[in-house]
Amino acid sequence: MLPIIFVLPLLQLIILSNAATFEVKNIKFGYIDNDQSSTSRALIEKFNASTYFDVLTDFSSEAFSNAAMLKGEVDVVVEIPRYFERDLQKEKHINLGVTINAIDGAAAGVENVYITQIVQDFNQHLKVDLMQISDKQVQPINIETIPLFWYNETLNYKTFMVPGILVLLVTMITLFLSGMNIVREKEIGTLEQINVTPIKKSQFIIGKLFPFWVIGMGLLTIGLIIAKIIFDVPMVGSLALMYFYTSIYILVILGIGLFISNFTDTQQQAMFIAWFFMVIFILMSGLFTPIESMPKWAQIITEFNPIKYFVEVMRMVMLKGSGFMDILPQLLKTLLYALVMNGLAVWSYKKTT
Amino acid sequence: MNNDKVIQVESLTKMFGDFIAVNDITFDVNKGEIFGFLGANGAGKTTAMKMLIGISKPTFGKAHVAGFDVFTDAENIKKNIGYMSQKFALYDDLTVKENITFFGGIYGLSRKRIKEKANTLIEELGLGNVANQLVGSLPLGWKQKLSFSVSLIHDPKIVFLDEPTGGVDPITRRQFWELIYKAANQGTTIFVTTHYMDEAEYCDRVSIMVNGKIEALDTPKKLKEQFKAANMNDVFLKLARG
């Protein structure tokens, strides 16, 4: 069992950290060049040179490009108008038609930014029009941004994801192990034997917590080593602080697990309940989707999500180098949570029926 | 309170909803006695026993075990009793030695005492060769004997045995009863449930439960006279059939 506990999550860490990326790459790119001038070809060459855009298809007309987009053969179509070169030189101003497949809204947003950057880079005076395929309304946008990415300068998604995924794995393993534990003893019958001994409720719960706490800290350690060696994630902040926070955080999860275990009669029931909370905790943790964009009620629920605090703290300490005072709010909330959950775990463990 | 009576039960009742599992039972158990607690399946033996060992709250009635009230002092009872359930309840994934050490620790024995206990216990049971093997790999008979010995690890005043010899071969059963006698001779009170009527003959006194009530309670000899039966089996059949 012990090898399974350690090997599987670490494999997950390696696989997921490579796969769960928000980077939009290999964009299928097409263009309609109505101008066929040296300037228009230079612009297309700019896209060609970009690592984000993959296939370059030359469409002769909008009808073809629309059909291709419908079939999914192309994600982005840039239409260069006639007299592109002439108007650009004369009027220093030209509109460019851009059509983006926006079924995946997040990806479309990123693609739009890439295109805008490439075009702006090509000519400071060029404006990009985003053409929406539904209404064909031309909405000129003229954005000039000077991006400065702090704490993750190269926008490396692994830097962003690895601490988060490590958090999930530590949480998942400790929650499931503790959630299955007491209920398993109920099933085997050893719990009854324990209940006829004079053991104190708190002693029993602490005895149950401790081994899983050690496993959780062990997982964190191996996970951090992998993060450093394989993913080269920067560790700006204090390791001691990270461990201190985690040591309290794991108590929260173990308290929840033991609480679940006390309330259920079979391991199946415990498994379902543990999964119910795990899925909510993961998807509402801010790891995959920003909490700021959730509806108000959902944001209130996330206040009760321990993973949210752990993700925040890990990112703050690892990537920003936040200190004790910076994470104090999260620390206090987690501590309170740990006290409440373990209080409930002790309370719900009944030696008599 | 009479010091010779280690278990005193008066009108003890347990109800699950409308169902009366244990119906107004009254009896005493004397110190050092082997008390047989008999009854058909579902007669309420296990429920009654669970109330006496402090893991099930009685609905009403009175009961004192080892001098402590089951309602208010269950944790003190637990210090003074041993219990062996019908289900084997040591940890299968710990070795023989680890199980002994673990339960010794729970009962607050010192390290030195645990070591002594473990050594004598392993030697007495002839488990020397398997002391470091996982308990799960042992045959059932061995497990049961180990389980009994572990329930005695803290020298309890009373030991409760719930069908300790279920599914065990006759030779092991005999050895098991030798262990029980040995414990009784050392002054431990034995409270035992069983389905084997030959085992009932070994008891000092026997009670027979039918449908939650104690229908008969006396020495095996007197019960046989009372019911004009040749053996305990006939006594049991006469009672259980009504």
Automatic annotation (TrEMBL), chain B:
Transmembrane segments: none annotated. PROSITE patterns: ABC_TRANSPORTER_2. SMART domains: AAA. It is found in: Membrane. Keywords: ATP-binding, Membrane, Nucleotide-binding, Transmembrane, Transmembrane helix, Transport. It is a multi-pass membrane protein. Residues 7-236 form the ABC transporter domain. GO terms for cellular component: membrane. InterPro entries: AAA+_ATPase, ABC_transporter-like_ATP-bd, P-loop_NTPase. It holds the Pfam family ABC_tran. GO terms for molecular function: ATP binding; ATP hydrolysis activity. The keyword Transmembrane helix applies. PANTHER family: ABC TRANSPORTER G FAMILY MEMBER 20 ISOFORM X1, ATP-BINDING CASSETTE, SUB-FAMILY H, MEMBER 1. This is ABC-2 type transport system ATP-binding protein.
